[in-house]
Amino acid sequence: MENNLNINNNLNLENTTNNENELNEEKLEKEITIEYYNQLKSHPQSEWYVIHTMSGMEEEVKKIIETKINNLKLKDKIFRIIIPVEKEIKYKAGKKKEINKRLFPGYIFIEMILDNETWSFIKSIQGVTGFVGPQEKPTPLTELELEKIRPFIEGRVIIKKNELNIGDKVRIINGPFKDTQGVVEKIIPEKNKVIVSIIIFGREIPTELDINECEKIE
Questions:
Q1: Do 51 and 22 fall into the same domain?
Q2: Looking at the predicted structure, is the pLDDT value of residue 216 above 50?
Q3: Which of 13, 23, 92, 196 is paired with 5 by a 20 to 30 Å CA distance?
Q4: Can you give the C-alpha Rg of the chain in angstroms?
C-alpha cells in the first residue's frame, strides 16, 4: 500500500512539473509575442488604424495629414502613415520600368493615439471617408494584421516576384530574343534568373535570362 502511495505521489509530482513547464513556455511565448508586437509601435498607447479614402487620393491625404500634424502640434499623437506598395518590374520597348502598385487601393495605415482630438482631426481631412471598423468606429489592427504590413512599417522595399515554374511555357519580352517562346528548364532564385530552352536555327538552346524578362503563356 505504501509503495502504491509513493508511486502515485511521484506521478502527481511529475504531472505537476510538466504542467508548470507548459505554463512557463506559454508565458515565455506570450512575452515574446508582446515584445515583437510592441516593436511596431512608437508609443505605449498608440495603435495602428486603417483610414478609407476617396479613390486615387491616398498620397494626397497622406501629405495633408503630415503637413497639418506639424502645424497643429499633433506629432506626439500621430506618428506614422504608410501606403503599402509593391514594386513591379516591367519591360516596355526594351526598357526596364519600375511601377509602384498599391496593395490596398483606397486605404492608408496610420499609427496614432486615438482620442476625440485625433479622431475629429482625421475625419476633417479632405478625401477621408472614414475609419475602418464597425459603424466607422476605429478598430485597431490585430497582431496578425500588423504582421502582414510589417515590412512596410519597417521601410523595406517589396518587389513583386514573377512566379515561374519548371516546365512553364514563356515568352521573352526583352533583349535580343524578344517575342521568342520557350520552356523554363531551371530556376535560379538567388540570382533572380531562369534557364529557358528556346529554338534557334532549328536547335534547342538553353538561355539564361532575368526572370522579369519572361512572361508566362497561359
A1: no
A2: yes
A3: 23
A4: 27
Mean pLDDT across the stretch 1-11? Answer: 41
Place of cell 498608440: 46
Please state the rounded mean pLDDT for residues 45-54: 94
Is pLDDT of 57 > 90? Answer: yes
- 132: which 3 cell numbers? 475602418
Domain check: are 183 and 118 in the same one? Answer: no
The three grid cell numbers given for residue 41, joined into one nine-digit string: 509601435
Distances in Å between the Cα of 141 and the Cα atoms of 48, 109, 217 are: 6, 9, 39
Contact, 188 vs 194, CB < 8 A?
A: yes
Cell numbers linked to 71 = 502645424
Q: Report the predicted TM-score, pTM, of the whole model to 2 decimal places.
A: 0.61
Amino acid identity of residue 21, one-letter, is N
Count up the domains in the chain and report the number: 3
Rounded to 5°, angle at Cα 121 from 115 and 122:
95
The helix or strand, by DSSP H or E, that contains position 198, with its residue range, turns out to be: strand 193-200
Residue pair 171/179 in contact (Cβ under 8 Å)? The answer is yes
pLDDT higher than 70, residue 31: no
**What is the Cα–Cα distance from 62 to 52, expressed in whole angstroms?**
12
